[in-house]
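INFO worker-7 received task bundle
INFO bundle size: 2
INFO processing item 0
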Amino acid sequence: MSHPCVVTIDSRSAPRVLFSGDRLVEVDLPTGTRVLYPKPPLEPLKDVDAAIRYAINHPYNSEPLYAKLRPGMKVTIAVDDISLPLPPMRRPDVRERVLTIVLDLLADYGVDDIEIIIATSVHRRMKAFEVRHMVGDKIFDAYWPKKLYNHDAENAAQMKYIGTTEHGEEVELSKRAVESDLVIYVNLNLVPMDGGHKSVAVGLCGYRSLRAHHNPRVMRDCYSYMDPATSALNTSVVRMGKLTNKHLNVFTIETTINNRMFDRPLEFLAKNEDDLTGAEKGALRALRFTLDKLPQPARQAIFQRVPSPYGVTGVFAGETEAVHEHTLRRAFEQYCVPVSGQADILITGIPYISPYNVNSFLNPLLVQVMANGYLFNLYRGVPMVKKGGTMIILHPCTDLFDNEHHAPYIEFVHRLLPETRDAMELHKRFEPKFAANPAYIEMYRYGHAYHPTHPFFMWYWGEAGRQHLGRMIVVGADNEYIPKLLGWETARTMDEALRMAKQTAPAKPEILALHSPPIVMADMTADKPRGALRGT
């Protein structure tokens, strides 16, 4: 008996509606296709503030936060950046709620040497209005910009080397954090890849540390980077995090949210199309019609400018690893759906948003990392699609970039990818030059651009999918150039894409469609014994 979130298409099934950027596309899938839907949102906590207070007073494998405090001590609070949740959370963001309670506690204990660092690593600097939305008016007005600021991974004077792991991974972090008596990390956990040792050891590091694991070799050795137990990336980060926590006094606060991405007017987007009410079917038709008539910026605004009504489902505090066990358990409870039997053909829409284009456009490189990276990796066990199988995606692949946020991406896509798509060659030949490019570094430090190495990392994060898949077919591209540059084939319609995919598939191919967003993960088992994992 399959899980209720795995729906098999039959002759009576309605067409499915999948995202294609900021449009919605209706597709008729073949009979027998399995469609994987997100679980319903978990019930949120009734009293979030009470849960925060309980967590910091009853931590895991640590003394309570108040017991760590003394007058005159130096405290650094680090907090996750705008890359999560997606879209941003309706105010008050849970980070504001945690910060408010923690700052009140610090004041009660006479701690006034406090700085709050937004742990951007090599992401773009958040803008003032984005920070205000995240931390709230009171904290923003009291601390921004002197005591509340973005991490700067290129400010050598404010970075400090603390050591090297037994595997040669260099750990260099924010000097302010390293020299603090206490570091409090405030995390919002969106997916199982987030949080844990990644918070401090990645969020407050620089390129010197990132290059140890943000490289093609490590990313090719991740058998789902959404499953920490099988991720070489996570293994490296844990080693660096353990070294970090030997030198820093870290108190971790992690929060989990449910998957209620869409508010009431759009909640039907997460539902099985066969279960829609008459009113919901009408609303869906009207939404599709409207999106098809609007210009791109207006389409994106419909989705991206409305904060999501996520509910907080857990608050956990204490020692990093002990806390993260509970966080992962809650995340998997929300996202994981058991699925038996890998597909020959995997179908998914690519939505309008990723961790790296909040308040900007999903450019072609980010389409790639969403397809070959994040969505491909939404599994535990074995991949959703068999080795050498085909992935069909829906997206226009428009050749458009945000010049302010994604300046280095433009050169990467239009100058480097025409030379080679080989990640190892890109890593060796071009990454060091980009990493030292003074113009791009200036844009990162004083503008709002991603670090010059970030487009390389985005390409590497698609390595697992690229190495595993035999073919990539994109439906609905508005040009041939970008898909060809990415190594993808094109089809005008889903029917055409399926005909193409079946040419290299078994006679009766297994087809699986991913109906996301909201986020869903497959707890995947293959038809063959589990011992065959590496060959599947």
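INFO item 0 finished
INFO processing item 1
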Amino acid sequence: MYSNKQIARSAGFLYLLLILFGVYAEKYVRNSLVDVDNAAQTALNITNNAMLFRMGFVADLLMQLTYFLLPIVLYQLFKKTNRAMAGFMVLCVTTAVAIMSSNMLNHYAPLLMLDKNGFSNAFNVDQIHSSVLLYLQMHTIGYCIAQLFFGLWLLPLGYLVVRSGQFPKIIGILLMMGCAGYLIDFMIYFLFPGHSSTLTQYITAPADLGEFSLCLYLLVRGVKGSHLTISSKSTE
């Protein structure tokens, strides 16, 4: 028997892992190694820090694993509030994870291109450097495609947070605003390339605030609720 509070804290722990793995892979690893304006420097950075680049790759995959598990746990909390919306939430994340996982091939490809015993013998130095940066740019584009779905999942999540009565409504409102922000940013990225990254930070701020707030609330407060049994019947 598991209480809703225990389930909520499990979800909070998964949410925290998701955030930590994601921040490490994107903000620490890729931001420190990738120079979008200098292919040669990027290739040199990856060559000199191959293990760090690999750790970023693994962290990204672990982030996707926790992201896949998170809505399955949240479904247990929200299925009584609205089963259809809870199912839609799971579907959005499953689609996003499928896209992001496939996209990780673009993250790993630079290692193959820079391997002295691999494909590097078939290309000259400039071609290798350009290919490395191309694969990393393709990874960014793939991530932005997935954003359509990991942005969309915030709509049912926010709705369920508001309707369940188990969380502060402001968190749910921020999450739904975050959905709109992600979708707007998705459109801007593909329709207006070269837009300011500062604009993206402002547009996606409600999503960041809402998700971080929900993570903390799940970890610290959990929810009030009766016991329920996690079984084949309860997970339908």
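INFO item 1 finished
INFO post-check item 1: The radius of gyration is 20 Å.
INFO post-check item 1: Residues 20 and 29 are 12 Å apart (CA to CA).
INFO worker-7 idle
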